[in-house]
């Protein structure tokens, strides 16, 4: 009697497990169908720590990527992150010709970009800062006289430096990324790197042991971070702006900032 009862219970448990597995499988299929049914927009990005980071498996993450994921969740849409490009003009062209819909690359707004793209509402303020090597005393732009300054070629930061009345007294070290400038400072190939404060704060924390020093000019102008969207795509622009407003209001944006920028 006990033997048959045990066998019966085993069969019942097996059937229950099979039913649960089937339910889980059906649930997963339904979830995939729901995701596939969402309106999808293509996002291209430029690898730029801590805004956009690509790991060894090719997966994309970072500060701006998490902001976009939060917007997508809030607005019930889907962002497809396409393979990243490392050429700036190719990035811009892919948005202009509507091959992709949105660019994530720690962008600042300016009149030239406004003529070429839709520009989202800003999600955070920033300003340019100076990261000096060990033993280099720099507290502002005026202290750059006689210094070797690493600055991103053809950037707003470079244009600002070139507009200074004493620009000829500064030896410019051209770089193609802020990280390249940080490496030049650490290697003694440049005295200072000038660029976005959020990015330089990130690297200042990473290389604190090497004695780097961060400073900001007293008259440094504020800039704002935005997303660039293909011209005429007013629907996506409105969706991104609505999502930004929502995640600012409910504290999600602050939590993402804390995770990536205030460690």
Could you give a short description of this structure?
By secondary structure, this protein is of the alpha/beta class.
* Straight-line distance between termini: 65 Å
The chain-level mean pLDDT equals 87
CATH topology of the largest domain: D-Maltodextrin-Binding Protein, domain 2
Largest sheet: 10 strands, mixed
* Total number of helices: 9
Percent helix: 40-55%
Give unreliable regions as ranges: 26-33
Keywords: Signal
Pfam families: SBP_bac_3
Protein name: Amino acid ABC transporter substrate-binding protein
Signal peptide: 1-18
Report on the structure:
It contains nine helices and twelve strands. Strands 1, 4, 5, 6, 7, 8, 9, 10, 11 and 12 form a ten-stranded mixed β-sheet that branches. The chain has 263 residues and is an alpha/beta fold. The radius of gyration is 25 Å and the shape is globular. It folds into two domains: 36-125 and 223-262, Periplasmic binding protein-like II (D-Maltodextrin-Binding Protein, domain 2); 127-222, D-Maltodextrin-Binding Protein, domain 2. It comes from Conchiformibius steedae. InterPro entries: Solute-binding_3/MltF_N (IPR001638).
């Amino acid at each position: 009697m006990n033997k048959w009862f045990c066998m019966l219970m085993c069969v019942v448990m097996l059937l229950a497990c099979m039913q649960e597995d089937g339910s889980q499988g059906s649930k997963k299929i339904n979830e995939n169908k729901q995701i596939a049914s969402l309106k999808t927009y293509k996002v291209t990005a430029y690898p730029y720590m801590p805004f956009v980071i690509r790991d060894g498996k090719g997966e994309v993450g970072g500060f701006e990527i998490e902001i976009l994921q939060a917007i997508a969740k809030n607005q019930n849409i889907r962002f497809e992150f396409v393979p990243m490009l490392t050429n700036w003009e190719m990035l811009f062209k892919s948005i202009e010709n509507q091959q992709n819909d949105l660019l994530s690359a720690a962008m600042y707004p300016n009149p030239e970009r406004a003529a070429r793209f839709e520009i989202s509402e800003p999600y955070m303020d920033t300003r340019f800062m100076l990261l000096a090597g060990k033993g280099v005393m720099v507290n502002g732009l005026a202290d750059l006289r006689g210094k070797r300054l690493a600055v991103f070629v053809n950037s707003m930061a470079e244009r600002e430096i070139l507009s200074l009345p004493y620009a000829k007294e500064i030896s410019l070290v051209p770089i193609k990324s802020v990280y390249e400038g940080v490496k030049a400072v650490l290697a003694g190939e440049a005295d200072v790197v000038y660029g976005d404060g959020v990015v330089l704060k990130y690297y200042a924390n990473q290389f604190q042991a090497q004695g780097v020093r961060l400073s900001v000019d007293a008259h440094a102008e504020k800039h704002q971070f935005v997303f660039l969207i293909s011209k005429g795509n007013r629907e996506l622009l409105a969706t991104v702006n609505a999502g930004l407003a929502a995640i600012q209001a409910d504290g999600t944006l602050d939590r993402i900032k804390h995770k990536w920028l205030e460690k």
